[in-house]
């Protein structure tokens, strides 16, 4: 069976409630999750802070053992066949650099390549390819302790690709990266997925998720909340477009004309008036016509499409999103 299959995954951590002498309890970080990460698709995993995303990714990466339930990668269990699973996957976590500072960039890739059993003949070429891919060719023989934060993070991305993983696990991969490098990384990830790599992505940058992901799971308190393509999630939550119209000659007639649409108006510092309307339909035309009909002069019109961010915020606000 191809793909990563997460089935009824549950992960509890032992915790002490009030300091180290407090009573022992357990914290349930993941509470019965089912996820499918097929080859060739970028699958998003979204949720607010503490929803259980990192715990899920670490469990898929064989770094944590499930309390119950299972994770399989191409049919191989992450507990029973951990070694074989590790050859098929790799993890890039934006917050952690996961590279050695007392080695050069090239030495790091060489070292990790050997850990992943990349054949030596292939490793030399692969190292050069990856250093070029992340823009570190010139810094290849510099100690990582002299790298900037962004350079170290780019090296961590190259490290994550060293074994040409069939599945790539990305936990906030663009966290703290400069915009052009983040954009390059997104392109690399999209190309890898187009070539057949299965990707699991968590990111707080919802525009990034919207751009890349074919399917998104939304979780809350370790449980499944919603899933679908970004377009389906937006439709399901009834996310609204926002229309903003600037009127250069404000007056009561404009207020009266836009009121039936449910629009709000606000006077701006330059004396113009901003009319704002959130609506599921394409209503900018009739709204603008009503303003002009009432004698208003339009100085600007802007339509912001509904975003995945709106959809996630709507989901987070729904009662079932609250932790039980
Ligand atoms: N080792 C641990 N011991 C105890 N509790 C933990 C441990 N790791 C995670 N947790 C708890 O499990 C829950 C889920 O954490 P997790 O890091 O998986 O969430 P997340 O969705 O990745 O959050 P964020 O967006 O903040 O990174 C949180 O309440 C967290 O405090």
Automatic annotation (TrEMBL):
PROSITE patterns, alphabetized: ABC_TRANSPORTER_2
SMART domains from the UniProt entry: AAA
Record-linked InterPro entries: AAA+_ATPase (IPR003593), ABC_transporter-like_ATP-bd (IPR003439), ABC_transporter_ATP-binding (IPR050763), P-loop_NTPase (IPR027417)
Highest taxon of source: Bacteria
Record's keyword terms, sorted: Antibiotic resistance, ATP-binding, Nucleotide-binding, Transport
The keyword Transcription regulation is assigned to this record: no
Bilayer topology annotation: Peripheral membrane protein
Domain ABC transporter: 15-246
Intracellular or extracellular location(s): Cell membrane
Main location: membrane
GO MF term list: ATP binding
PANTHER family, per database record: ABC TRANSPORTER ATP-BINDING PROTEIN, ABC TRANSPORTER ATP-BINDING PROTEIN NATA
Similarity section: Belongs to the ABC transporter superfamily.
Name of the protein this chain belongs to: ABC transporter ATP-binding protein
Organismal lineage: Bacteria, Bacillati, Actinomycetota, Actinomycetes, Kitasatosporales
């Amino acid at each position: 069976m191809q793909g990563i299959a997460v089935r009824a995954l549950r992960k509890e951590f032992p915790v002490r409630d009030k300091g180290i002498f407090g009573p022992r309890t357990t914290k349930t970080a993941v509470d019965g999750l089912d996820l499918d990460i097929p080859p060739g698709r970028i699958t998003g995993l979204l949720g607010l802070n503490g929803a259980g995303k990192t715990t899920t990714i670490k469990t898929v990466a064989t770094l944590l053992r499930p309390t119950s339930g299972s994770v399989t990668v191409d049919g191989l269990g992450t507990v029973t066949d951990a070694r074989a699973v590790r050859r098929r996957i790799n993890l890039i976590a934006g917050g952690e650099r996961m590279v050695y500072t007392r080695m050069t960039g090239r030495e790091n890739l060489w070292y990790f390549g050997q850990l992943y059993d990349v054949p030596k003949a292939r490793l030399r070429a692969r190292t050069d390819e990856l250093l070029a891919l992340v823009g570190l060719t010139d810094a290849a023989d510099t100690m990582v302790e002299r790298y900037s934060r962004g350079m170290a993070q780019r090296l961590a991305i190259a490290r994550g690709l060293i074994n040409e993983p069939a599945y790539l696990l990305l936990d906030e991969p663009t966290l703290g990266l400069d915009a052009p490098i983040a954009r390059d990384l997104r392109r690399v990830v999209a190309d890898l997925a187009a070539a057949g790599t299965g990707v699991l992505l968590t990111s707080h940058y919802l525009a990034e998720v919207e751009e890349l992901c074919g399917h998104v799971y939304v979780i809350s308190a370790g449980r499944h909340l919603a899933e679908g393509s970004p377009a389906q999630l937006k439709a399901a939550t009834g996310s609204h477009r926002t229309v903003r119209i600037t009127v250069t000659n404000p007056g009561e007639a404009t207020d009266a004309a836009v009121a039936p649409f449910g629009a709000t108006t606000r006077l701006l510092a330059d004396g113009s008036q901003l009319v704002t309307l959130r609506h599921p339909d394409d209503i900018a035309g009739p709204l603008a016509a009503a303003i002009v009909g009432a004698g208003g002069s339009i100085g600007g019109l802007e339509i912001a499409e509904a975003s995945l961010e709106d959809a996630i915020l709507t989901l987070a606000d729904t009662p079932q999103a609250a932790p039980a």
